[in-house]
């Protein structure tokens, strides 16, 4: 064997000996390569989160109940029973609840039906705010109440309590009933007994003429009007014979 070949062989044996540079390099690669693979994998996993066009989120059930998004329902229907055990139903063409934490529903195209002994009474309004907990509707605008025997109360801006079957004004009130038209500071009506009470500078008109009083009570069932407190009635000539 030539001297050059012997030198090359000796160098190869020295490179492969334990503790040589080759041996130390292999030891470093055994540690470094797995670590480098882990770093590269972490980079690839993190890249999708850094892109602006992609959004990553976690949805928690506890957060769902506090969502700020509004809930919209077409042709909503609510039902229950009043304090007398009679059923009531409220339907709306549209209902919007701002948040599930607040039990208030904005409704439009409202029709409520209350069960009475003589038959159902209906309440129609264009819009209102329905309190799901109190079972009350704050009606904003015109409202028409129709009784089972043709009784009617037409007015505006009232609070309807479905449980107690009471209708109360929320401010200055005006409207008409079968017994005549009226204008007063406040009104309270019991749909079950068909009694209407007006207070505060009541004025109006009946078949006999115009009237004014501090208070007025009307029985829609019996068609009777009672004026109280400085009552004055101006009779139209020819109406009394």
UniProtKB/TrEMBL annotation:
Pfam family, one: LptC
The keyword Transmembrane helix belongs to this UniProt entry's keyword annotation: yes
Transmembrane segments: 25-47
Keyword Acetylation assigned: no
Gene3D superfamilies reported for this sequence: Lipopolysaccharide (LPS) transport protein A like domain
Superkingdom, natural source: Bacteria
Keywords for the protein's UniProt record, in alphabetical order: Membrane, Transmembrane, Transmembrane helix
Protein name: LPS export ABC transporter periplasmic protein LptC
Species of the source: Sphingomonas astaxanthinifaciens DSM 22298
């Amino acid at each position: 064997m030539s001297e050059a070949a012997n030198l090359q062989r000796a160098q190869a044996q020295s490179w492969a000996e334990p503790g040589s540079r080759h041996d130390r390099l292999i030891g470093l690669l055994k540690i470094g390569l797995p670590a480098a693979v882990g770093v590269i994998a972490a980079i690839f996993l993190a890249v999708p989160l850094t892109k602006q066009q992609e959004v990553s989120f976690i949805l928690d059930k506890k957060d769902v109940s506090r969502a700020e998004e509004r809930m919209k329902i077409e042709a909503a229907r609510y039902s229950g029973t009043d304090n007398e055990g009679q059923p009531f139903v409220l339907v709306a063409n549209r209902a919007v609840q701002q948040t599930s934490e607040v039990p208030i529903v904005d409704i439009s195209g409202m029709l409520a039906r209350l069960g009475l002994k003589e038959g159902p009474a209906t309440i129609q309004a264009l819009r209102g705010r329905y309190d799901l907990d109190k079972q009350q509707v704050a009606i904003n605008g015109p409202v028409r109440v129709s009784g089972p025997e043709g009784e009617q109360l037409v007015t505006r801006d009232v609070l309807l309590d479905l449980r107690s079957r009471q209708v109360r004004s929320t401010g200055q009130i005006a409207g008409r009933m079968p017994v005549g038209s009226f204008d007063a500071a406040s009104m309270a009506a019991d749909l079950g007994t068909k009694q209407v009470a007006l207070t505060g500078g009541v004025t109006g008109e009946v078949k006999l003429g115009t009237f004014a009083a501090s208070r007025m009570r009307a029985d829609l069932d019996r068609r009777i009007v009672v004026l109280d407190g400085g009552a004055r009635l101006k009779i139209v000539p020819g109406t009394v014979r």
